[in-house]
Amino acid sequence: MKHRIVVLGAGYAGAFAAGTLARKLHPDDFQITVVNAEPDFVERLRLHQLAAGRPLRHRPLARVFAGTGIELRVARVRALDVERRTVTVAGQDGVDELGYDTLLYALGSSADETVPGVAEHTFPVAARESALGLRARLDKLADGGKVLVVGGNLTAIETVTELAEARPGLRVALATSGELGGWLGASARGQLLRAVDRFGITLHEHTTVARVEPGAAIAADGTALRADAIVWAAGFAVSPIAAASGLAVVPDGRIRVDRQMRSVSHPEVYVAGDSVFVLGENGLPLPMSCASAGFTGMQATAAIVGDRTGRSISTTALSYVGNHISLGRKDAIFQLVDGAAQARSWALRGRMAARIKAAILDLSGWSVSHPTFGKLDRRYRAVTAPAPEMALG
After folding, report:
1. Are residues 11 and 88 in the same domain?
2. Is 300 helix (H, G, I), strand (E, B) or coil?
3. pTM of full prediction above 0.90
4. DSSP H or E stretch at residue 390
5. Residue that finishes a domain, picked among 177, 204, 232
6. Is 204 helix (H, G, I), strand (E, B) or coil?
7. pLDDT value at position 187?
8. Where is the FAD/NAD(P)-binding domain (predicted)?
9. What's residue 391's pLDDT?
10. Sign of CA pseudo-dihedral 202, 198, 328, 143
C-alpha cells in the first residue's frame, strides 16, 4: 500500500514543496495529494498589483502539477483530526474525508479581521477574491474618490503606493498606529517618505483604527476617517484549524515545530509557511513572509524525504536578512537587518531595488509553476525506518 502524503495549501510553500516531493519520491511507493481552495496558484505577493488594475499571470494548478503524479483536490479544509489522521474538505462534490500517513500543513495566513467591522466593510489584499473586489470598487470611483489603506507593514506600504501610482485620480490615504516606516533605517525611511510625498498620499500616523463602519474607519479617539473604499492591511492571522485539531500551537495559532519542521506534538505532521512557529538562526521567531515560506518549505520537504526514505536530512538555514518593499512600479527599498532583526544603516533604494524585487517575484512564480524543472530527479524508494516520533525521543 502506498504511503499517503497530503499537502494542505498550494501557495508559495505548499506548491513548491509538493512539486519537490513528487520529483524526489518514487510513485510506486508514495501517493501525493494537494488540497487547495482555488484551482490556480495565486501570487500573493502581487495581489496589491492585481487590486490596482494590473493583470496576473494565469497559473492553473492542474497544469502546474501535470506529469508529476500529484492528485489535486480543489476544496477548502474544514477540519483536521490528528488522532485519526484525517482531513475534512469541502468542494464542489460536497464534503469528503481524506486519510493521510504524512501531512504537510501549509495553509498560510489571511487578513486579521478581529477589529469590528473589518470583515463587513473593508477589502483585504491577502486573497485574490478580495483583491478583485477592491479593483471592481475602484473602477466605479470617479476622480476625487477617497481610498484609505489601514496598516503600516510591508503589505500596507506596497498597497498604498501601488494604488496611488496606478490610480492618480483618486485621493489615497494611509492610517497606521505608529510612525510609518519607523522600523527602517534613516536612508530607507527617507526613500519611503519621498515616495509618499511624490504620490500625494495623505498620512494619518499614530492612528489606531478601533472599528470600521460603512464608509468610515473610526479611530480610537473617535475620529472618523471617511473613504469610498477601505483597504485592510493591518496584520495577518493563521487559520484556527490547527489549534482546533489538537496540534501544539502558540497563542496566535501557529504550530510549534522542531528544527526539521515536524510538529512537536504530532511528528507525522510537517509545517511550512506562515503557520510555522520556529526560531531562526538569530534566536527570534521567523516572521510571516515569502522568504520564510521558502526556507521552511525546503526544510520540511527535506525532512519528509529523509524520514520516509532513510536518507540523511539536509539543514536549510533559517535566516532573515531584510525587507524588500516595492514603492510602485519603478521604486523600491531593500533594507538589510542585523542579527537582532534591527535595520542596518545601509539600504538599496530606487530603480535598481525595484528591478531586483521584480526579478525575485518572477523567479518565485516560475519555480513554483515548474516543479519538475524540465526533468525528474532520481526518485527514492520508501524504506522501513524508525518513525519520526521514535527518532525524536
Report:
1. yes
2. helix
3. yes
4. helix 388-392
5. 232
6. strand
7. 94
8. 4-281
9. 40
10. positive
Is the residue at 135 inside a domain?
A: yes
Bridge partners, residue 249, by sequence: 255
Q: What is the mean pLDDT of the chain?
A: 92
String of DSSP letters for 80-107 = EETTTTEEEEEETTEEEEEE-SEEEE--
**What is d(CA 201, CA 23) in angstroms, rounded to the nearest whole number?**
47
Cα angle 268, 307, 279 (rounded to 5 degrees) comes to 70
Q: State the amino acid at position 273 in one-letter form.
A: G
Strand partners, 216: 213, 226
Residue 393 has pLDDT above 50, yes or no: no
Residue range 295-331, pLDDT digits in tens: 999 999 999 999 999 999 999 989 888 889 999 999 9
Round the CA-based radius of gyration of the chain to a whole number and report it.
22
The cell numbers describing 78, all together, are 474544514
Amino acid at 248: A
226 & 256 share domain: no
CATH number, residue 208: 3.50.50.60
Helix (H, G, I), strand (E, B) or coil at 348: strand
Q: Is residue 11 part of a domain?
A: yes
- pLDDT value for 293: 86
Q: Name the amino acid, one letter, at 190.
A: G
Same domain, 145 and 220: yes
Contacts of 349 (CB under 8 A, 6+ apart): 187, 188, 191, 331, 332, 333, 334
Does residue 365 fall inside a structural domain?
no
pLDDT at 130 over 90: yes
Contacts (Cβ under 8 Å, ≥6 apart) of 129: none
Note whether 44 and 115 are same-domain residues.
no
Q: Is the distance from CB of 212 to CB of 234 less than 8 angstroms?
A: no
**Domains contained in the chain, number:** 2
